[in-house]
Amino acid sequence: MVARPRQFFEDGVAPGDQAPGLVFAIAVALVYQGLQFVFVPTTIPELGGGATVSALVALLVIALFVAPLLLHLTAAIQTALLIPLLSRRAGVSETVQVIAYAAAPCVFAGVPVPAVQAVCVLYGAALLAIGISVVHQTSISKALIATAVPSGVVFGYAFGGFRALTALVEGLPIA
Fold first, then answer.
1. Number of CB atoms found within 10 A of residue 5's CB
2. Contact 109, 32 (CB under 8 A)
3. What are the two backbone dihedrals, phi and then psi, of residue 137, each rounded to the nearest 5 degrees?
4. Closest CA relative to residue 80, chosen from 69, 92, 67, 71
């Protein structure tokens, strides 16, 4: 995917089979959050039973609820944004897969270095636009317009891109 994203999205996204994308998105979310817990232990919620139990419970909630819900909600938003732009488009399951696979660089966004986080989320947003362009057979300019809001949700908020970019601009350390 890193070297040839267009080829990856052409070959790696299968119609009607969102399960591999869902599993991939959950794995990315778990690695991202796990890295945050390791590097910034204060991000572990206090749920009782100590830090380890709290971290495991939080990761379980992310795997079972947060990642799948966010992925499917974002895919619904993405699909709705594609409707007025495209007369013909791929299905929702393909959109789910594109969003999931575009998040691949964000496995490293849990490292609390704003420059690393910014590169991860910006590359993820670029992959989303490329993937939408390829899978839905549209121009990159239409894909950029259509992916602006979903990129903000996934890469800006969920993976901390807005926080990282703000920290870079302001020169502040990120927590």
1. 21
2. yes
3. 50, 60
4. 92
Q: Which amino acid is at 75?
A: A
For the cut 80, the answer to whether the pLDDT of residue 1 exceeds it is no
**Residue 88: what pLDDT?**
84
Contact between 47 and 53 under an 8 Å Cβ cutoff? The reply is: yes
Q: How far apart are CA 138 and CA 144, in angstroms?
A: 10
% the chain with pLDDT above 70:
97
* Average pLDDT over every residue of 6-31: 96
Asked whether 48 and 15 are in contact (CB, 8 A), the reply is: no
Model confidence at 156: pLDDT above 90: yes
Instruction: Give the separation between CA 56 and CA 61, rounded to whole angstroms.
Output: 9
> Token pair of 154, please?
């996934």
How many residues make up the chain in this entry? 175
Contact call for residues 138 and 85 (beta carbons, < 8 A): yes
User: Distance between alpha carbon 18 and the CA centroid of its chain, in Å?
Assistant: 15
Query: How far is residue 105's CA from residue 118's CA, in Å, rounded to a whole number?
Result: 10
Rounded Cα gap, residues 117 and 97, in angstroms? 22
Q: Number of H helices and number of E strands within the chain?
A: 8, 0
